[in-house]
Amino acid sequence: MKILRSPFSKSADNNTSSISHTRPISKWHSAVVIAGFALVLNACGAGDKEPAVVIAEPETNGADGHGGGSEEVFPESRFGGRQLTMPMDILVGNPAANAERNAYYGDLHVHTTYSFDAFAFGTLATPHDAYRYAKGEAIKHPGGFDVQLREPLDFYAVTDHAMFLGAVRDAADTTSDFSKYAHVEALHNLNAPENMNTKSLVARGNAFATFLPDTLRGIADGTVDVEMTNTIAREAWADTISAAEEFNKPGEFTTFVAYEYTTSSDDRGNLHRNVIFRGADKLPAMPFSRFHSQDPEGLWDWMDDLREKGIETLAIPHNSNGSNGQMFKLVDWAGNPMDDNYADKRIRNEPLVEITQIKGTSETHPVLSDSDEWADFEIMPYRIATTLNSEPKGSYVREALLNGLAFEDKGVSNPYKFGFIGSSDTHTGATSDDEANYFSKVGLVDGASDRRGSTPLTPMDAEIIREAGRSALTEVDGQTYATGAYETWGASGLAAVWAEENTREAIYDAFRRKETFATSGPRIRVRLFGGYGFDEAMLDDNDMVTRAYAEGVAMGSDLFAKDKTPPSFIAWAVRDANSAALQRLQIVKGWTINGEHHEKIFDVACSDGVSLDPVTHRCADNGATVDISDCSVTQGLGAPELKTVWTDPEFDASHRAFYYVRALENPTCRWSTWDAIRAGVAPRSDLKITLQERAWTSPIWFNPDS
Question: How many Å apart are CA 153 and CA 253, to the nearest integer?
């Protein structure tokens, strides 16, 4: 008899779900169980002479003589009377849960009116508004227009900055005690209707620039009551929790209580993390911020302490691309070499990394991956909130994965063994992940095409930008454009998981086991399994996924050596029906030899029957193009699905390696091109006209230790 285990059962080591992939209880077996209950009930109260209970077993042909429809008489119970054999079946907590797991899409990086920067630039949307948006409702953008998703998301997390949570909003409210401080007077009534326009940008920029240093100075010298700021933060945090609880609907829509820990290095290298809580039954009274520790290790210690109190949480680093080499450096905050204690603490608390978002993609950089033709995807070259260049080395995910292998080669734990997600980092409460409907992220500052650099500025708006202190004006094709970071941003991205059901528990457990993937915006579905003995016949097997789980490992897992047998991988992607068709499916391999980094891109499945070059491992061009006059694409090219079983032709069982899938769509228009077309002007010539949307799985790590 097979056992059906509950999807809510947890492993002792990592607090993640496990479920066997057996069939539901059969109608026959259910009838037997019901009959048995009826017989037991009939026997109750029938006196000392209980009838023998017989259960008809299905026919068997076993050698024990019990086949052929025989009847079994149950033995005397040592407690008196007759005794039934206890069936081993276990009912699942939710019969609708899918053991093969479903793809769910969400955003784990969303700012609302409680973030100091979001409010400063016009955002009035509350956490409640943000969740309404994620569920498919329209909400108001600071620019005065409605924004709405093309289709609802499955999960969402409001992640307002813990630093001065709610403080700027409170400063603008002239009825509050905090507004009485002289240094916040410039913020009074900042988002009153008469101030919601471009003319206010100069005042907003000045007020925003002085608020943080002046408030910190006041706290330091005692002129600002720190307990008042704590009270404001507690109230905003309580409302954030309340919104998450109100909108969480198990099985339909999932919310996570969350926030952003915002710290940086002394050279303005970005070290931000989003902190995600598994549940909401027990939470800290206020979030841990950079005011408690500028060193992220302080955050991890706090998270470990919470875990000992029964509060499970994880942190997700983001915008490593803007860290100036600080996010994935090879020493700790104090400059000491990493040891096992540090590495284990880091990966225990940070199992995931945000690989793409509005402020650029952090997979890799052309300087680091010169043999990867697709390494230049939506690169933002600056440190966050600056136009200072960010050093690529130490800032990108693929290099960090390679450094992690090198640590293991030296016998040190791997601090960079993370899974992938995407998210938006919107500061309007509303994810902006659609190239054709892009409204950027910083409210009034970049909510219009001319202010984000995709269409020419009017002379008046150019002057406003100049007065606001931005160096950000450039001449292109005889026209004046805003420039800086905004035009390097992208309509990205989404977090995605494979989970049994749409609940906090199931989705969070997917985070923990790293069965996650990232997309640049489209709802591409992508999977990766690794194992031994996978073959092409499995691709047509209705039980392919069940077999892949049973006989191998999923993305986010270790695959251990089996003698010197090369493993095989099932790579699979399905297009978003509302986006472009798929062009190619790739596996990205990274490995180390004596600590030295190596990487290679393998095209493993091609659309349209085009050939795959066995030497270059590249698909031939499928001929898909874009008509720049209206952004229409070539019809009839590309694939709705790409699926293959692949074995590494250069496999060496002695080398540590990672493998992850990257799925690429046919080319489509970039958001800046869409903006230009709608404005009736030529696209800016120094920006990319098209792009290829994509998805990335979390890696599978090959471990040469058997």
Answer: 8
Residue 258, classed as helix, strand or coil, is: strand
Question: Could you read off the pLDDT of 303-350 as tens digits, one per residue?
Answer: 999 999 999 999 999 999 999 999 999 999 999 999 999 999 999 999
The CA-atom distances, in angstroms, between 230 and each of 285, 592, 652 are: 10, 48, 56
Average pLDDT over residues 652-660: 97
Q: Which two tokens stand for residue 209?
A: 């620039």
| CA trace torsion 111, 115, 121, 123 (10° rounding) | 60
CB distance 352 to 416 below 8 Å: no
Hey, how many other C-beta atoms are within 10 angstroms of the C-beta on 60?
12
On the question of pLDDT at 368 being above 70, the answer is yes
CA distance 566 to 46: 66
Q: Which of 110, 112, 185 is nearest to 433 (CA)?
A: 110
- Element housing 72 (H / E): strand 71-73
Within 10 A of 80 (CB to CB), how many other CB atoms are there?
Answer: 9
pLDDT tens by residue, 73-112: 555 555 555 566 677 666 655 667 999 999 999 999 999 9
Burial 588-613 (b: 16+ CB within 10 A, else e): bbbbbeeeebebebbbbbbbbeeebe
Cα angle 347, 348, 350 (rounded to 5 degrees) comes to 55
What's the confidence (pLDDT) of residue 48?
Answer: 40
Residue 39's φ and ψ, nearest 5 degrees, are -65, -40
Residues 518, 422 contacting (CB under 8 angstroms): yes
What is the spatial distance between Cα 552 and Cα 481, in angstroms, rounded to a whole number? Answer: 53
Q: Which residues of 246-284 are buried (b: 16+ CB within 10 A; e: fewer)?
A: ebbeeeebbbbbbbbbbbbbeebbbbbbbbbbbbeeebb
Rounded distance, CA 92 to CA 664, Å?
37
* Residue at token pair 């086991």: 513
Q: What residue type is assigned to position 570 of the chain?
A: I
Q: Which residues contact 134 (CB under 8 A, 6 or more apart)?
A: 106, 107, 149, 152, 153, 155, 156, 253, 431
At residue 469, the pLDDT reads: 62
Give whole-number Cα distances, 639 to 401, 579, 604, 687, in Å: 30, 12, 14, 28
Phi–psi pair at 34, nearest 5 degrees = -65, -45
| Cα-based distances in Å from 607 to 55, 89, 278, 539, 601 | 56, 45, 40, 16, 17
Q: Is the pTM of this model over 0.70?
A: yes
473 sits in which H/E element = strand 473-476
Residue-wise pLDDT for 402-422, tens only, equals 999 999 999 999 999 999 999
CA-wise closest residue to 531 among 505, 502, 565: 565
Q: Helix (H, G, I), strand (E, B), or coil: what is residue 671?
A: helix
- Measured CA to CA, the distance from residue 69 to residue 58 in angstroms comes to 7
Cα 571 from Cα 525, distance rounded (Å) = 11
- Lookup: tokens for 120: 């400063």
How many beta carbons lie within 10 A of that of residue 334, not counting itself?
A: 7
| Alpha-carbon span 243 to 259, nearest angstrom | 13
Q: Which residue has the tokens 């500025």?
A: 457
Residue type, position 453, single letter: G
Q: Given the structure tokens 């070499």, which residue do they identify?
A: 337
- Asked if the peptide bond before residue 609 counts as cis, ω within 30 degrees of 0, the response is no
Are the C-beta atoms of 207 and 190 separated by less than 8 Å?
A: yes
